[in-house]
Write a structure and sequence with these properties.
The complex is a heterodimer of chains A (77) and B (511).
Chain A (H helix, E strand, L loop, with lengths): L1 H4 L2 H22 L13 E2 L3 E2 H23 L5
Antiparallel strand pairs in A: 1-2
Chain B lengths: L1 H24 L4 H6 L6 H12 L2 H4 L1 H9 L5 H28 L4 H8 L3 H34 L3 H50 L3 H12 L15 H12 L5 H7 L6 H18 L1 H14 L2 H10 L4 H6 L1 H9 L2 H39 L5 H25 L4 H14 L2 H9 L5 H20 L15 H18 L5 H17 L2
Helix pairs in contact in B: 1-9, 1-18, 3-9, 3-12, 3-13, 3-18, 5-14, 6-11, 6-13, 6-24, 7-8, 8-9, 8-18, 8-19, 8-20, 8-22, 9-14, 9-18, 9-19, 10-14, 12-18, 18-19, 20-23, 21-22, 22-23
The chains are: A mainly alpha (77), B mainly alpha (511).
Chain lengths: 77, 511
């Protein structure tokens, strides 16, 4: 972590991860997972609930950020 | 019944044979027994850690809670994926390098040396043991529930079978064979979990997964979104569950895994497996099981009626609903194979937890406090024999506690594990973190958590403000750590050099 904070690409990487966590929290707190009265629950491809869809998107953001940083910028690579 | 007994006996014998082989090839040193001689590569490490964290909870508690309350609880998984990856990206390299340079055998030992405090060593050892020991006992009881659902035999039979396997594996094998056996156990587990899902969807879910979702939409659409049919998973609780997952980096039996790594390149590749195999594949299987397939085949209202007729409760039946669905819809022989998968999951997790606990007992409590001049052979012997004591203790605690499996994990064990997180993170990353701060913060967090869970007038956790236990306790812990660190003298130059500068140099040069 100290080596990541110590250079600009590392700080960008940490900022992306932090933003994804904050974004996730904001989405949850604002009721993004809930179904409004009278509406049908969100289902992507007919079966992926909102909780699953949002989580998969979150993991993909972390995966892409990790691949870019750890394979091109990590000081100990 | 004869077929089930024969198959489970053969499965148990394979595990015992692997443990015996591990004992034969081991180097018989403390480092080899406790940390596999620091020779674990990335693939073994991944399966070792993945199946150390994927317990019978993944098959029972997790889908059981989704089955009852809808998909909100899955945010624990999303947080955990980030937490485990974070451990290996942010803390793992430093902890590994530090332990390798100084020959530390446990993370508690590393922190005790970093903070120059035997008192902290005692506080950390006792608090970690206090929260990990009951968790160990949950695994055999989880298997017992599966045994009962499959064979009708009392829970204690399945629990006893699992305990025997566990004790033999850990006593003989040590960390190396526990890691290697986890690959075998993990393969059985994934095959059982995924195989059962594919088969049951083909056999009992017309229209596949969209068909399952459609059926749930007709019977109880609230099962398809938060907060769920009982309004349990409110936005605040889901957010709290997500945060609890993020703190997975502090699980002691996962942290110790980082110390067994062969080289620093492991830390570059490991997160890839966590994200792709763990986050995008493995954990989605029990999610689909609990949130879609099981409720579409046995609606919760129907299970509640059956539970009432059998003198059970919906919560207990929900915990084993996956096994029940399989037993009712697939051939008997496959039910046995699935139970093997559950046993594999339980043994793989409990074995690592037992190893971790025994290392802490032998290295940190016995040698660290009472007998500093103990020989290598003595430490290994204490570690081995403490396994039996820990198993007995953990089973007793688990039998006395009748809480739901999933809630025990997220409400008690994980908030407990999190209490050493500020001392761990500060000790590895912040030069200014002090001994006084680590002792005060950990003690304050643990005491607050214990009081908050025990004092519940009218069923309300008033001391915790009815928040998730991790939120107020960890907040207090962190504040105390930071404030006390600034109020007390900073660590010596010598400590800063040993624990920061030398580690940086080693990581930059080591290949």
């Amino acid at each position: 972590m100290r080596e990541i904070i110590g250079h600009a690409p590392g700080r960008v990487y940490l900022a992306v991860l932090l933003l994804s966590v904050v974004g996730m929290m904001a989405f949850i707190i604002r009721g993004g997972l809930e179904t409004a009265a009278g509406e049908e629950p969100f289902l992507l491809f007919g079966w992926m609930t909102m909780s699953l869809t949002v989580g998969v998107a979150f993991v993909i953001v972390w995966l892409i950020a990790y691949l870019i940083y750890f394979f091109f910028f990590w000081p100990y690579r | 019944m004869a077929f089930e007994i024969t198959a489970l006996s053969a499965f148990g014998l394979i595990i015992i044979a692997l443990a015996a082989y591990g004992y034969k090839v081991s180097a018989k040193t403390a480092e080899d027994y406790m940390l596999a001689g620091r020779t674990i590569g990335v693939v073994v490490m991944f399966f070792f850690v993945l199946f150390a964290i994927s317990s019978s909870w993944t098959f029972y508690g997790f889908p059981g809670l989704l089955y009852l309350h809808g998909p909100g609880y899955v945010f624990f998984i999303w947080g955990s994926v980030a937490g485990f990856a974070g451990l290996y990206m942010f803390l793992g390299p430093r902890l590994w390098a530090l332990a390798k340079i100084n020959r530390f055998l446990s993370p508690v030992e590393a922190l005790a040396e970093r903070y120059e405090s035997k008192g902290l060593r005692m506080v950390l050892a006792i608090s970690i043991l206090a929260f990990i020991v009951p968790y160990v006992g949950i695994q055999p009881l989880g298997v017992g529930a599966g045994f009962q659902a499959l064979t009708g035999l009392p829970t204690i039979w399945g629990a006893a079978y699992t305990v025997v396997l566990l004790v033999v594996l850990v006593l003989l094998g040590g960390m190396r064979i526990v890691a290697w056996v986890n690959i075998f156990l993990g393969a059985v587990y994934v095959t059982a979990l995924l195989g059962s899902l594919i088969w049951i969807v083909q056999a009992a879910v017309p229209g596949g997964l969209p068909g399952a979702a459609q059926r749930i939409m007709e019977i109880d659409p609230e099962l398809l979104s938060a907060p769920g049919p009982y309004g349990e998973f409110s936005p605040v609780l889901v957010a709290g569950t997500f945060v609890v997952g993020l703190l997975a980096f502090s699980w002691p039996h996962v942290v110790i895994g980082a110390m067994t790594a062969r080289d620093k390149h492991l830390f570059k590749w490991f997160p890839l497996l966590v994200f792709v195999f763990g986050g995008l594949f493995f954990y989605i299987i029990p999610f689909i099981w609990g949130s879609l397939v099981a409720p579409s085949i046995i609606p919760p209202a129907e299970l509640a009626e059956q539970a009432a007729q059998a003198g059970s409760t919906l919560e207990i039946e929900a915990d084993r609903v996956v096994q029940t669905v399989i037993t009712r819809n697939l051939p008997a022989w496959f039910g046995v194979f699935v139970l093997m998968g559950v046993i594999a999951a339980a043994v793989s997790t409990a074995a690592v937890q037992l190893m971790t606990s025994s290392i802490i007992v032998a290295r940190d409590v016995v040698q660290g406090i009472f007998k500093p001049d103990a020989s290598d052979r003595q430490i290994t012997a204490w570690a081995r024999w403490s396994v039996i004591v820990i198993v007995v203790l953990s089973l007793t605690v688990s039998i006395l506690d009748t809480g739901l499996m999933a809630l025990y994990l997220t409400d008690v064990s994980i908030p407990g594990f999190a209490q050493w997180a500020p001392a761990l993170v500060g000790g590895l990353l912040w030069k200014r973190g002090t001994r006084e701060a680590a002792i005060a913060a950990t003690s304050a967090g643990v005491i607050y958590l214990a009081l908050g869970l025990l004092i519940t007038p009218g069923g309300s956790r008033v001391l915790l403000f009815d928040l998730h236990p991790i939120v107020p306790t960890l907040a207090l812990n962190m504040v105390v750590y930071i404030v006390v660190s600034f109020l007390t003298p900073e660590p010596s130059e010598e400590i800063q050099t040993q624990f920061f500068d030398e580690v940086d140099e080693f990581l930059r040069s080591e290949s």
